[in-house]
Amino acid sequence: MNNWLAGALALSSLTMLAQEQEAVHILNMTPIATDRPNITESAQITPVGWLQYEGGYQFSRAAETYGAYSLLDRNQVEQVLRFGINKKLEARVVINANTLKTSSTGIVGPMRMTGVDPVTFGIKYNLLVETNFLPHATWLSHVTLPWVAAGDYRAPAQTNLVFHEQRLMLEKSLTKRLGIASNLGVSGGLVGSNGFVSDGMFSLAADYDLGNDFGIYVEYFSEWFWAGSQFYNTTYFDGGFTKLLSNDLQLDVYAGFNLSAYTSASLPTTGIFIGTGISYRLPLARYLK
Fold first, then answer.
1. Total structural domains in the chain?
2. Residue 67 has what pLDDT?
3. Residue 8 maps to a domain
C-alpha cells in the first residue's frame, strides 16, 4: 500500500509540474501575430498546437469607369482560421461572406448579390527566421474552390475553375518599436480556362508600437490583373490601430482609400474602405488530447 501511495504521489507531482511548465510556457509566449487588419499578411507562424481565429467586418464603396459607370457597395464579414502544425508550418481556412450592391448607368440596372465566397484552403511555411541581416520570410499557398460556397457566390456544378494564390511574406524589425513588412504575390487559375498567372499584388507596411499595448500601421498596396492584352493596376493607401487586451486577444480598426485618381491608372476607380475586427488564439491541442 505504501508503494502504491508513493507512486500516486509521484504521478501527481509530475502532472502538477507539467501543468506548471505549460503555464509558464504560455505566459512566456510572444503576443499574438495576426494577418489582419492590413493586406500585408504576417510572416509569423501560429504556435504549434494553437488555433487562431481572426474575424472582422469591412464596408467598402468603389466607383468604377470600366465600361459603363458603376457604383459598388460591399459589406463583408471576414474570417480566417489558422492552426500551427509545427514550428515552420500552419494550416489555414479563409471564409468570407458578402453582400454586394451595384448600380450602373448602363443597360444593367441595380443588382444585389449575397452569400459566402468560395472557401480558401492553404498553408504557410516559414523559409527564414529573422537575423541581424536577414528578414523573417514565409511562403503562403492558397487554393480556392468555387463550389465550396453559398448563395449567389456558389458556382454551377459543372464549373471546373480552381484558383490558386502564391505569396512571399517578409518582415524585419528596424528598432524595438518600429518594423516593416512586405508581400509579393501572384494568382490565377490552377484548373480551368483562366491563366495560371493572371493577377498579382504588392504591399509595403510599417508598424509602430505606441506603448500600453497599442499599435499603429500605415500601408501602401497595389493589385493588378490582365484582361486580354490589357494590363490594369489599382493602388491603395490605408492605416489603422491595434490594441492587445492580452497576449492572445487583439482588437483592430482601420480605414483606407483608392489612389488611382492620383496615379494615372489605366482602370480609373475611386473608393474607400473601413473595418474593424478581433483576433484570438487558444491552445487547441490541449483540448484534443
1. 1
2. 65
3. no
